[in-house]
Design brief:
The chain is mostly helical. It is built from 20 helices and no strands. Helix 4 packs antiparallel against helix 11 and helix 17 crosses helix 18. It starts with 7 loop residues before the first helix and ends with a helix.
Amino acid sequence: MRINFKNLTVQVVIAILLGILVGHFFPAFGKELKVIADVFVKLIKMIIPPIVFFTIVVGIASMGDMKKIGKIGGKALLYFEIVTTFALAIGLLVVNIVKPGFGIDKSAAGTGDISKYTKAAAESSHGFIDFVVNIIPDNVVAAMAKGELLPILFFAVLFGLSLAAMGQNAKPVIQLFDKLSHGFFGVVNMIMKVSPIAAFGAMSYTIGQFGIASLFSLGKLMASVYITMFFFIVLVLGGIAKYYNFSIFSFIRYIREEILLVLGTSSSESALPRMMERLEKYGCSKSVVGLVVPTGYSFNLDGTSIYLSMAAMFIAQAYGVDLSIWQQLTLLGVLMLTSKGAAGVTGSGFITLAATLAAFPMIPVEGIALLLGVDRFMSEARAITNLIGNGVATVVIAKTENEFHPVHAADGVAAETKTA
């Protein structure tokens, strides 16, 4: 079988392997390559606000039916809450069975610099009222400039509803926004051509900075997180997919390029624009994709939910803090809220974890230093799980609303098979 080196999947895989080698054998040089990944992520983040705004506005305005818009949005939020709660509960269950924190050498991870995480957590409001208030932007332009996804999403929904209420008079605006969204997706395609280079830089930095040998002391936690996320994808998401008559394995194969991109950059946000485009080709309607995917990036972080519940319990176990079943259920309730505020970018999981531990003074917040050395590796697993989870959610919502077109899906999968 001939390998097509022009295929983006092949290029990203090769880049990741080369990055591992460079980071291992030339660690000092590998650390310096982080800038490549940082530039790529900035390029992606640059394009996300307008793509999310135009896609949501066009999707909602084109739908026209206000009741249908509310039904899809409500159904998506209900789905997100149920599935992420399952993810949190599974994380707690596994960490109680495996007990990766018991007997760990707390000095192995060093003290680390956790001040930036605890400070960010202290500055972040995680109460329900504060969370709701912060969704409403003080200034729409400022929210766009800062790339704040939830405020952009909120304003885009309102603007889309306004255009939908205008009927035919809004058609020229909808057509303009549709063309603009295609123009921005063209920019994404240009950026994606350098994604293998970004994956190479990110992996070189990760291995060069933390090394492979340093992972062994915390390998039990890493193995637990990876295995838990694997079973969550296969059993929970796979079960949901089977119920709605599509294969989770075929779907994963279809979005393999996006998964590899996330693996290289450790950020599910890097694949957001491309994922929206791919889901449309898979068969989901533009309106459902435009509404569900961006919302899912703030409310449906399955991988982050698993990580947060396991990390919190891991720290408690490492410091010998025995939490009762009621305290663990309270922790689950707090995480159900704080996990919704975690964005899909590297580092946000730490901030959310620190904020969650602040509500549990019996668990030392400095314990997050234990995770500094391996968080980068686990962030890849949770970002991939987030990506797959949001993809499955979009297909499910599209199917339940009769907004899924199997002919388009078959064509999309067939096209992918030919280019592989």
